[in-house]
Design a protein that fits this description.
With 370 residues, the protein is mainly α. The chain has 24 helices and no strands. The longest helix is centred in the C-terminal third of the chain and has 21 residues, at 348-368.
């Protein structure tokens, strides 16, 4: 059904009288009528007709009290389509009771609008945005960057929220000092393993305790990590997601079938496949995956150079692995000139000796806290 005019002659007369008299009560009654008319037939209106409603709403809500605007926001926020200018007007209102229904519900707000709102408005506005049905990585980046702990926890608990690599990196930083945020991260199933490992390695003892309490799958290993060495916590099998387990198993099958070589390692690294790269390096270097993971998340590239030399990789493959680490850590890529010189001078026998010492240290740490 298509309407020739969204507003009848009688309603237009009433509208003109309400605006002319300037009576608040009359404006409120008129706003209710116009809202009912819009909501009842919203899917049938054309863009031009919706623009007419936009003009009418803007005239009516001027000088109205917050309670009335909040009621309008509740109705328009839940609508499948609504006049865009009045939506923005309500979403950017300083009073959160008016802005929240739009920010949390309206599907018409695009990412640039949500990001602008999140960068300029209050924590209440950010909290409302964090509860939306879906959130893009671009929006969650701002929420994690600007939001207080309650905003960040709400965002992490929202299963419809996506996170970019940069967003995850910032989230790990926030979680490292906040037990509440860390506990939320611990129970979120989609956190990439390299970020979870980094969080466990950097978190304080109390934060690890909160993570262990929050997630039974992590509890067995992390509950005692307050006293344990970070290296053991990083290699804990219980911290491994189902996706990581599957990735490791697939790589092991490739190796068993004789189809895993240096070229495959480079492909994994170039495509930023952290779990697959770790498993592939472990197979070709003949060491446990936990050893490779421990070296992968260290601050320097020394561990990568050692394990790569043991595996017999050429420099292009090593550089691809180092580049992957930098990309996943949201760091700018470097030429790695000094690393290349170190790698070319490093003897396989020396690398083997350093690796044996590294594994001995890890075993000692595990035994001392057992």
């Amino acid at each position: 059904m298509v309407f020739k005019s969204p507003l009848s002659a009688n309603i237009l007369d009433d509208l003109q009288a309400a605006l002319a008299h300037g009576n608040v009560a009359r404006r409120v009654d008129m706003l209710r009528k116009v809202t009912d008319l819009f909501i009842d037939h919203a899917p049938d209106y054309s863009a031009a007709q919706i623009a007419v409603f936009d003009d009418v709403f803007e005239c009516l809500i001027e000088h109205l009290e917050a309670h009335t605007k909040a009621l309008l926001a509740e109705r328009l926020g839940a609508a499948s389509s609504a006049p865009p200018r009045v939506l923005r007007n309500l979403a950017f209102d300083d009073r959160i009771e008016i802005a929240a229904p739009i920010l949390s519900q309206s599907s018409q707000l695009d990412d640039p609008t949500l990001i602008e709102n999140a960068r300029t408005k209050s924590q209440g506005h950010l909290l409302a945005i964090s509860t939306r049905k879906t959130l893009s990585g671009a929006v969650t980046e701002v929420l994690v960057e600007r939001g207080d702990d309650s905003v960040v926890m709400s965002t992490v608990n929202n299963q419809g929220a996506s996170f970019s690599e940069r967003g995850y990196d910032r989230l790990v930083q926030r979680a490292g000092t906040s037990g509440g945020i860390a506990a939320c991260v611990a129970v979120r199933p989609s956190v990439p393993r390299h970020h979870l490992l980094k969080l466990i390695s950097q978190a304080s003892a109390s934060v690890r305790g909160r993570m262990a309490s929050a997630n039974p799958k992590l509890a067995e290993e992390i509950a005692s990590a307050v006293q344990k060495a970070t290296r053991q916590a990083r290699s804990a099998p219980a911290t491994m997601s189902d996706e990581a387990v599957i990735s490791h198993e697939l790589v092991r099958l490739l190796h068993k079938d004789g189809r895993l070589d240096e070229n495959e390692v480079m492909k994994f690294a170039i495509n930023e496949k952290f779990d697959e790269t770790n498993a592939a390096v472990a197979c070709l270097a003949h060491v446990p995956v936990s050893v490779v993971e421990a070296m992968m998340i260290e601050a320097s590239n020394e561990g990568v150079l050692i394990i790569s030399k043991v595996a017999g990789f050429s420099w292009p493959t090593v550089k691809a692995i180092i580049d992957m680490r930098q990309k996943l850590a949201n760091q700018p890529l470097s030429e790695n000139t000094s690393d290349r010189g170190t790698y070319e001078r490093l003897r396989p026998s020396t690398a083997q000796q350093v690796l044996r010492f590294h594994r001995m240290q890890q075993a000692t740490a595990d035994t001392s806290v057992a």
